[in-house]
Amino acid sequence: MSEFLKYAQDGAVVTLTMNAPEVRNALTGNHAVDEFVAAVERINADPSVRVMILTGAGTVFSSGGNVKDMKRFTTDEVTPEQIGRWYRSGIQRLPLALQKLEVPSIAAVNGPAVGAGCDLACMCDLRIASTTASFAESFIRVGLIPGDGGAWLLPRVVGLSRAMEMSFTGDAVKAEEALAIGLVSRVVAPDALLSEAHALAARIARNPGQTLRLTKRLLREGQHQRLDSLLELSAALQVIAHKTPAHAEAVNAFIEKREPKFGDV
């Protein structure tokens, strides 16, 4: 089977491209989850990486779960216990892996992001959409619930009321509406999508890599910790930050009235 994810690195930026346009970059019925998990582990182990961009080949970002592959779950041959194990050992590993990604991530949504594809975009830290993009939390349309963490992810991006509307109706949200509700941070022409994503990645990647990873960790922890607990973690991580070469360089550059040169720090 050909690889689902294309892994390409340019300097401090890794671009992951879902490369199965013949199945609209479906996330199940293939090795997609295994390849995402491996890519996250590879990025986390490489200190030269500071940003990850995720996009899809073809005209669709991702159609989510492969509905044809799900037909087997409707038969008596597959037990409820087997279905539960399939979710836990399969698609549910995807949000857990991306939650552990240490570097900032940008979803460059090139077309429809449907079901688990919509949730995949929400698993990234930032989202940029092509004018041809759309987002649908469409599980209800096939008689399912968001089994991949969408009920946790989507409300944190667009708020509970809008997440409920999207989940209860299954209606697609077009790019401009996605911008209005905060699902994406900008909408661009299709041929400018990757250049916009790389320009944003470059603005992020010019900052020190270790501190970027510490900042992302703190923001993620802040989603579920109390303020006093987060302040304790902030103090602990700030000790690390103060002792990095990047901080010393930034302080010296400020005093010497010049731009800092972070290089590989």
Structure description:
- With 265 residues, the chain is an alpha/beta fold.
- It folds into two domains: 5-205, 2-enoyl-CoA Hydratase, Chain A, domain 1, CATH 3.90.226; 209-255.
- Helices cover 45% and strands 15% of the residues.
- It is built from twelve helices and nine strands.
- α1 runs parallel beside α4 (93-99), α5 packs across α6 (150-158) and α6 (150-158) crosses α7.
- The longest helix has 16 residues, at 227-242.
- The protein is globular.
Helix and strand arrangement:
Blueprint: E1 5-10, E2 13-18, H1 32-44, E3 51-56, H2 67-70, H3 80-89, H4 93-99, E4 105-109, E5 112-114, H5 116-123, E6 126-130, E7 134-136, H6 150-158, H7 160-169, E8 172-174, H8 175-180, E9 186-188, H9 193-205, H10 209-221, H11 227-242, H12 245-255
Parallel strand pairs: 2-3, 3-4, 4-6, 5-7, 6-9
Antiparallel strand pairs: 1-2, 7-8
Helix pairs in contact: 1-4, 5-6, 6-7, 10-11
